[in-house]
């Protein structure tokens, strides 16, 4: 069975480490949403280590850093006398109830399959509600990408991916300098366009007015599209789409593939695009390639285009999870856990509907061009902010059940969940453990396919969360994305458009 709704418990008052009774903290609207039966989601982060894991050292470091945050040392409560309001209450952690380290043969055969099966088993098991909602698992076996694997499972109500990853990275250090915090790409300042450089006085006013009109129009269209999706508009039934109720409760497979960040930067520079544009282009190319193969082997549609096996007017959309924080820069551990500074923690995310172009392009670079056009248009819209604000409005005036029903409809009517996250520019070490890769995924959502891109040092890691009952040949998806990147890169090189990066 799938992970059921986590029913909060009621306990006595608990004091903090200084003997002072701490006040209960109400759950945020998004945290309450992730506690609903329709969207009961968890985050699973797979960490590959270059060396076998010293479990006591890793756990000790985790307890000294990440676990000190209030969310990792709080129980979920409900107040039946006050409309079943939910809140967090601080408690003491018994680390032995959170850590799992099976005794394994480090040189076992088929270690990659074992780790994949183990992670899959975590996707449909519930949390013990008598303790904080997180677990650590350690698998000291040699896989193709690591000599040891750590797995963190955290309920999504504890925080979103950016919060959790930032807290973890703030507790890490550069592998090359254990006294320094990880470094991240600096946010680039927006350069004015050539047209805007020519605008002065009256022309500048016209340019600003035109931009405002586009923002208003695009936002209106996006909100209408979002509303239609919540009511009736849904994607085409394809081999990537399953029945939402079945998908939500089934075991998932979380698999990853490591790409070269240099190759992606090469395409980015040649196309005058962003890394996100290239990643979206690779995703569209890979999904198109995969669906072409599926429709080729089975007559899935009654009407086909003559030139290829893809059905006419196929509609596939991804629901992009958008971070609404002004910055994702990692703060020091003292700032992350101290009481002297209040941080924006928890779930602060909006949603954006991205159309995924499904077509076989003669020019591989057309996928990146199309992705860039979609991304540039979405930048001139307040869709993400308004989706968050509308969610708060629905929660306040209609209640959590109605909000959960709306978001369940939106996610169920789309095909793919999509996200990406910027990681450190250099390899990092977590209490003596040099990480070879970071692969975060989620489970509990009604989509059969989740695509996540995670940068780490000179690597770009593709993480797929899939329902194997819907997509049994799921490894073909990242193989098709790998082939698509190669075709796009080759096209750039052959045309002499590649520039040093």
UniProtKB/TrEMBL annotation:
Pathway: Lipid metabolism; Glycerolipid metabolism; triacylglycerol biosynthesis. Residues 54-278 form the O-acyltransferase WSD1-like N-terminal domain. The keyword Endoplasmic reticulum applies. Its main location: membrane. It catalyses: a long chain fatty alcohol + a fatty acyl-CoA = a long-chain alcohol wax ester + CoA; an acyl-CoA + a 1,2-diacyl-sn-glycerol = a triacyl-sn-glycerol + CoA. The keyword NADP does not apply. SUPFAM superfamilies: CoA-dependent acyltransferases. It is found in: Cell membrane; Endoplasmic reticulum membrane. It is a single-pass membrane protein. It comes from the Eukaryota. One of its GO terms (cellular component) is plasma membrane. GO terms for biological process: triglyceride biosynthetic process. Keywords: Acyltransferase, Endoplasmic reticulum, Transferase. One of its GO terms (molecular function) is long-chain-alcohol O-fatty-acyltransferase activity. Residues 345-489 form the O-acyltransferase WSD1 C-terminal domain. Pfam families: WS_DGAT_C (PF06974), WS_DGAT_cat (PF03007). In the N-terminal section; belongs to the long-chain O-acyltransferase family. This is Diacylglycerol O-acyltransferase. It comes from Daucus carota subsp. sativus.
